[in-house]
Amino acid sequence: MLPLPTAFCERLVRELGADGAQALCASLDTPSPTAVRHHPLKGEGAPEGEPIPWSSRGRYLSERPSFTLDPRFHAGAYYVQEASSQFVGCLLRGEAMAGKRLLDLCAAPGGKSTLYASLVGPEGLVVANEVDRRRVQILADNVRKWGMGNVVVTTNRAEDFEPLAEWFDVVAVDAPCSGEGMFRRLPESREEWSEGAVERCSAIQREILASAWQALKPGGVLIYSTCTFNRTEDEEVLADFVACTEGELEAVEPVSQAEEWGIVTGEVGPFRTYRFYPHRARGEGFFAAVVRKAGEPKASRGRDRRLKSQVAPVDKREQQELARWIEEPEQMRFYRAGELLYAVRSTHYEELERLSGTLRVIYAGVAMGEIFKGKLKPDGALALYVGLRRGVLPAAELSEPDALEYLRKGDLRADLFEEGLNLVLFEGHALGFAKRIGGRVNNLYPNSLRIVNK
Ligand code: SAM
């Protein structure tokens, strides 16, 4: 095991005392628990295990299976998410979350965004933003796989949200940090840590928080989290924020929790804080804080669009063809963005126009596909969408070896499918589409997602 950085250990002794530091350091050389979070609508058959006490759909697994070789994983039946980080759902338990508009400012790879998408439900909207252009693609893949249809993925800097002042009911900042909480699960991260990184991260965290605050409605809730232990990036960042926003903050109700969960609670002004130390709680190092913006919600402010909206309407025939594929077409509005046709809940259409006129939108709602000669050539994302109308095409239920071959984008026997387009299932979970033409099968699983070398 790589040694822990000396300056990190010295910091721990200063912040936790010698005994606390020793217990924490010892825990960093023990195995990490493996945890998953089940999908609320597609979670059947997802790996079972001991419940995570602070996460109703969270489970500890007794061992780490090969998730890549589990077709349910590719169907979005569950998300592999570290146990402590699932706690952010608890911070919103006191809020009526259904239908809320939530901004996740630092979202990739999407663990918390998918959790928030489930919390706000189909009538709510999550804007999942990731500044890094490579990581945002992974975020978009995970959002497609989760299949709620209520997420807009953007790739912008935090300050680009300035035109959307006071627009969101909840803003979450899962800040880039020095990553001390990863020292156990990813020992190589120990080599990347330095005092300089702590200082640099804390400066970035302050900037992101300031943008987050602007975007939050009065009466709304701000969540700040990091996966690091040190106070410089946690309490001190919050203390400075409190000093700058005096009188604008209100405490929320504390999360009710059991002593044996091992979470260390605290306060920074009106912020309630929750810290996970691996020697006390069953999860990785994590820090989360929550506060409310004082005041009453009002009609959202914000400047007019700066960019031309990238969203265009579809014509009547296209509309009719697309409507066939959706369970509740009357709730949806279809639109075109570039080559692809998409669906979004009608109530979100104006919000999407506004967002796409302001930000770089990578993905929004559900990608439906393209229409050729009046017929939809469906996008893989549509198979994963919870609102797909299953009866619209024949379904081919595959065995596990065949399902894995499908996910490798391999060749499949024609007799498994009906002639024409099929929905590919494994134990009832939709994986994607395939087309049989006589004795030949066209495997339509997206190239970019196929399992390689397994
Ligand atoms: N919330 C994610 C999840 O639960 O899966 C994890 C987010 S990770 C802790 C922090 C993210 O912030 C990274 O994806 C990183 O690329 C992004 N980031 C880095 N610098 C940033 C900045 N200056 N502004 C906004 N985000 C930044």
**Spans of at least 5 consecutive residues with low confidence:** none
Shape assignment: globular
Report the mean per-residue pLDDT as an integer: 96
What's the number of extended β-strand segments? 23
Q: Alpha-carbon distance between the termini?
A: 27 Å
CA gyration radius, whole angstroms: 23 Å
Summarize the biggest pleated sheet: 10 strands, mixed
Strand content: 25-35%
Assign the structural class, choosing from mainly alpha, mainly beta, alpha/beta, alpha+beta, or little secondary structure: alpha+beta
Percent helix:
10-25%
Number of helices: 11
Overview of this structure, please?
The protein has 454 residues and is α+β, with helices and mostly antiparallel strands. It has helices spanning 6-27, 71-75, 88-91, 111-120, 135-146, 195-215, 235-244, 316-323, 349-356, 380-384, 400-407, and strands spanning 34-38, 50-52, 55-61, 78-80, 101-104, 125-129, 151-154, 168-174, 216-226, 249-250, 264-268, 271-276, 286-293, 312-313, 332-337, 340-345, 361-364, 366-372, 375-378, 395-397, 420-426, 429-437, 440-443. The model has no long low-confidence stretch (mean pLDDT 96).
Any key phrases for this structure?
23 strands, single chain, binds S-adenosylmethionine, 27% strand, 5-stranded antiparallel beta sheet, 10-stranded mixed beta sheet, globular, 454 residues, alpha+beta
List the topology elements.
Elements: H1 6-27, E1 34-38, E2 50-52, E3 55-61, H2 71-75, E4 78-80, H3 88-91, E5 101-104, H4 111-120, E6 125-129, H5 135-146, E7 151-154, E8 168-174, H6 195-215, E9 216-226, H7 235-244, E10 249-250, E11 264-268, E12 271-276, E13 286-293, E14 312-313, H8 316-323, E15 332-337, E16 340-345, H9 349-356, E17 361-364, E18 366-372, E19 375-378, H10 380-384, E20 395-397, H11 400-407, E21 420-426, E22 429-437, E23 440-443
Parallel strand pairs: 5-6, 5-8, 6-7, 8-9, 20-21
Antiparallel strand pairs: 1-3, 1-4, 2-3, 7-17, 9-13, 10-13, 11-12, 12-13, 14-15, 15-16, 16-18, 18-19, 21-22, 22-23
Helix pairs in contact: 6-7
